[in-house]
Amino acid sequence: MLSTTSDGTVYELAYTGKAERIFLFFKVYEIAHYAALTDDSALSFETVLTDKRPKAILVRFDRKLGRDRIREELDKSLRKNAQENWLEDAKASVDAFMAAIDRDANAGDELVFYWLADGKLMVEFNGERSFETTDLAFAKLIWSIWFGDDPACDRDGLLVLSGAENDSKTD
């Protein structure tokens, strides 16, 4: 389970799966996806960008990455799966988010994106809230990195348990 609090509401999110980002033969990070699971329907990569249930993406770095490299890779990834107007609509949020990346990541550091039912997207680095927005286009851009048509990792693994709860993290 992964939990966060926003405006006095506690969100408990169940682990739905994990994957790895490998560049050449180097493991860059592990990623885990979490969501509020309901009896209504399981998540799929076709619906994860439109489903309004709270969800989270946890990135655990496996190696040191400088902040400029993180910004560069995120910028490329945001553009890779962007729908026609998302980048233009989210420009102010993208710029503010990139500016909020103010330190390097070391092996073991965690970056967590929370996308809540009210549309709020929050970002935490090692448990410290570093960015927040209600920009829907920006939230879709972030999730499209891992769930778009050309994802940064094996998106199937991220939702393998979306119909059943599991307490695991990115083990």
TrEMBL record:
Pfam families hit by this protein: Chalcone_3 (PF16036)
Keywords, alphabetical: Isomerase
GO molecular function, one term: isomerase activity
Domain Chalcone isomerase intervals: 12-152
Record-given protein name: Chalcone isomerase family protein
